Amino acid sequence: MKKSMLYKELAEYYDLIYSWKDYKGEAEKVRRLIDSYKMSDGNELLEVACGTGRHLQYMKRWFDCTGVDNSRSMIDIARSRVKGVRFAVADMTTLSLGRKFDVVSCLFSSIGYVKSYKNLNRTISNFSAHLKNGGVLVVEPWFTRSNYHPGIPHMTTYNGKHIKIARVNTSKIVGDLSITDMHYLVARDHREVKHLVDRHEIGLFDTRITLQYMKEAGLDVRYLKNGLMKDRGLFVGTKRS
Ligand SMILES: C[S@@+](CC[C@H](N)C(=O)[O-])C[C@H]1O[C@@H](n2cnc3c(N)ncnc32)[C@H](O)[C@@H]1O
């Protein structure tokens, strides 16, 4: 079976391949939602699966931030980019930081990497356990089975002066997972072109089941159809007192 490398060996290309993404605009939208739904008094924010820290770069203007991710390579990049934020390597399925926050966020479909409903339920409980009463949870999910379209070819490119990247893929559905082998061609100055294949297995979780888990975890929750990215939606929950 092919292994996922994106958040390990391929971490150095992550920001290039996602250079099109509007992290600033998304952070501003998340901040507005937090302002609308947060009932607690503080401003401590935990971003789970923070990756290279691109949202935190903006969130730190408004919140006292902590970022966690289970990839050391991603955390190393985040730490060198974003000053004034605490970072730690931690797995969201077993998260236990021993403190509570006013906001917990998990964006860009990272929650899908927990893969199974059992892990999803456990992860949502962990998020809730890290929230103060009146605190807000913001989760941007991956696609559901009904709005995911497998088999369609995709290509993303990065055209820098000293590095060019082409990433192509198709995907399939197996059980409740989308499975995508991302093929990377990376060309750099004076080096052989590298071909790398990176497998992503991501849970296609049902919206109603996710909402149910959030309610059971003590959250008053809403699903917003128009979230940050097209067709992905957004869950926003407030921790009940
Ligand atoms: C699509 S990236 C999103 C990163 C970042 N939130 C962003 O918006 O750029 C998914 C992230 O989830 C992280 N991740 C995957 N499984 C995880 C887990 N079980 N616990 C914590 N982080 C995880 C990966 O290392 C990666 O950084």
Shape: globular
Mean of residue pLDDT values: 95
Order of strands across the widest beta sheet?
Answer: 3-2-1-4-5-12-11
**Rg calculated over all Cα atoms:** 18 Å
Head-to-tail CA distance between termini: 45 Å
CATH evolutionary superfamily of the largest domain? Vaccinia Virus protein VP39
Low-confidence stretches: none
Q: What does the largest sheet look like?
A: 7 strands, mixed
Ligands in the model, by name, code or SMILES, are: S-adenosylmethionine
> How many distinct helices?
6
Return the structural class: alpha/beta
* Strand proportion: 25-35%
Q: Quick gist of this model?
A:
The protein is of the alpha/beta class and 241 residues long.
Notes on the protein architecture:
- The chain is an alpha/beta fold and 241 residues long.
- The protein folds into 2 domains: 11-144 and 205-239, Rossmann fold (3-Layer(aba) Sandwich), CATH 3.40.50; 154-203, CAC2371-like domains (S-adenosyl-L-methionine-dependent methyltransferases, Single Sheet).
- It contains 6 helices and 12 strands.
- It has helices at residues 11-17, 23-37, 56-59, 72-81, 117-129, 207-216; strands at 44-48, 64-69, 86-89, 101-106, 131-139, 154-159, 163-169, 171-174, 177-188, 194-203, 219-224, 234-239.
- The chain has a 7-stranded mixed β-sheet, sandwiched between helices.
- A hairpin with a 2-residue loop joins strand 8 (171-174) and strand 9 (177-188).
- The chain is globular.
- Bound molecules: S-adenosylmethionine (SAM).
- The site of S-adenosylmethionine (SAM) has 19 residues, from loops.
